[in-house]
């Protein structure tokens, strides 16, 4: 019997986003397969996490494409991007906490491409006067990732309503990224 690898990955993602410490036995049960079958697909937890990383990268790339980040005002594009990523935010939050994905020289080049596309969106917003120029595109990108992960965890724990996810993230991020209309507020020492 052929194993549907995509089904196994999505089952693993659904479980691990709720219980990041789940064992390979629990992952196999969630996917409806034996532990031996799971190990034939993924030699161990690290191999499974690496496969989930590839899925997460593909989902982010698809969200970036769907959001049409090069069209219209940059603020609107950020809103479209957060809305497009929302269904995948739990997986991204799980991956965000998996340190082995970001250690050493072996970081997946897919993340670099995503970083460049998101930073390019913020750079465009700065160039057209929508966003502040005192915050780097790299920092705005990292802030977006942190808010996406925090939002996913808050929704999963029932502290935030799922319908508020996109609004809360975009309003907090864009409220801080927007160039002030009036004179500079206060200066920090």
Mean pLDDT: 88
The class by helix and strand makeup works out as: mainly alpha
Percent in helix = 55-70%
Strand content: under 5%
* Anisotropy-based shape: elongated
The main pleated sheet reads as: none
State the distance separating the first and last CA atoms.
67 Å
Number of helices: 9
Topology as a string of helices (H) and strands (E): HHHHHHHHH
Low-pLDDT runs of 5+ residues are: 182-186
Rg of Cα set = 19 Å
How many β-strand runs? 0
Distinctive features:
mainly alpha; 0% strand
Helices and strands, with pairings:
Layout: H1 5-18, H2 24-31, H3 35-41, H4 45-67, H5 74-85, H6 89-96, H7 109-127, H8 137-156, H9 165-177
Task: Explain what you see.
The protein is mainly alpha-helical and 189 residues long. It is built from 9 helices and no strands. It is elongated. The termini are far apart. 30% of the residues are buried.
Task: Describe the structure concisely for a colleague.
The protein has 189 residues and is mostly helical. Helices cover 66% and strands 0% of the residues. The relative contact order is 0.11.
């Amino acid at each position: 019997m052929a194993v549907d690898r995509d089904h196994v990955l999505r089952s693993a993602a659904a479980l691990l986003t709720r219980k990041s410490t789940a064992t390979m036995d629990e992952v196999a049960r969630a996917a409806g397969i034996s532990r031996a079958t799971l190990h034939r697909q993924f030699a161990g937890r690290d191999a499974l996490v690496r496969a989930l990383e590839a899925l997460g990268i593909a989902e982010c790339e698809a969200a970036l494409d769907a959001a049409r980040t090069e069209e219209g005002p940059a603020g609107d594009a950020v809103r479209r991007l957060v809305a497009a990523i929302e269904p995948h935010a739990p997986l991204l939050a799980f991956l965000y906490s998996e340190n082995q994905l970001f250690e050493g020289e072996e970081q997946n080049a897919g993340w670099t491409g995503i970083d460049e596309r998101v930073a390019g969106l913020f750079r465009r917003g700065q160039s057209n006067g929508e966003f502040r120029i005192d915050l780097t595109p790299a920092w705005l990108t990292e802030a977006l990732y942190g808010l996406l992960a925090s939002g996913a965890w808050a929704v999963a724990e029932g502290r935030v309503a799922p319908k508020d996810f996109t609004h809360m993230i975009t309003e907090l991020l864009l409220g801080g990224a927007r160039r002030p209309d009036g004179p500079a507020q206060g200066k920090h020492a």
